[in-house]
Specification:
By secondary structure, the chain is mainly alpha-helical. It has two domains: 144 residues, no CATH class; 174 residues, no CATH class. α2 packs parallel to α6, α8 runs antiparallel to α13 and α9 packs antiparallel against α10. The two termini are 42 Å apart.
Amino acid sequence: MSFSMKLNETATTNKLLLILVIPLIFYLLKVFGFIFAPLMLAFFITLLFMPTIRWLSRKKIHRIAAISLVLLIVVIGISGLFYLMKLSGREIIEGKDALYQLLDNKVGQYIAPFAERLGIKTTTFDSPIRSIIFSEQISEMIMGSFGETITILQQTTSLLLMTLFFLVLLLAGSLNLETMLGETLFSNKIKSVRTYMVIEKSIARFLKVKFFMSLFTGIGFSLIAWVAGLSFPLFWGLLAFALNFVQMIGSIVSTAMAIIYAFIEINQPHTVLILAIGFTMVQVIFGSVIEPILMGKSFKINIIAILVMLMFWGYLWGVPGLVVSIPMTVLIKTLLEQFQGTQKIAKLMS
């Protein structure tokens, strides 16, 4: 057998092994998503703060103090967001009686007729809401989903704690991507360092763009709600800001919630329509026009690649997957560009 034939057989064997290994990797990513999802979240947060860590190190500040400062910034930021939402939510709770009455009237006017057609009695109690909620059909549905709600809360708590744990490890240098790249993918240390720096700058740029687009979206929501006289404008702005980090789904959920509340509180249909158009336009301008332009100029990734990655990572890891989908796309594209055999795939993503 000639040497060229042996090479061809080896290449064919490697391709077959690759075809078998890739599905296995995806399967492991899905099964161990409770580990990989918080790890990637922590990794992208770390990349955002690494320039700060290096700057503090150059100022002769001990690494433990620098890491503590970064963790303090993260905790203060998250705590501040939750505090503001709690403060706004307290206003909603204080006015819950008036809100309940408005909601009850709307349910009796618009939802009760459809519920009756489905066989749900809406006259059991004086309140249409209570009649529907305590009906046999809805009670069974609520009890059936109670366990799922508890599971979601447990998964969210676990995600936050594990993300914080991995964040400490990454900031401390216990998990070093630059070293892992040099020992696994690259034989040239200079190339591994250069690739890591490109990844760091790209992810940090994405996070900055996403933060400011979410901030402007939240400000837009608050201003529209305030001008229209909708209650709790600060709450709607904070909600839009927070949910905007969940790609695609978050903007839809925040807009739908604001419109539904406007429908409950405001009796003038034309005002509700104007609010709906206003909230939607804010999402379109910042989320569908300005953000893609900035992202396209920065990363040169086409919309098809972004949509495919959104579906893929969303399927693997759920909501955390939607949050990290675009940073993961940037990471994968940057790595593919470093190797001659995969540069064609990177170009397809451009």
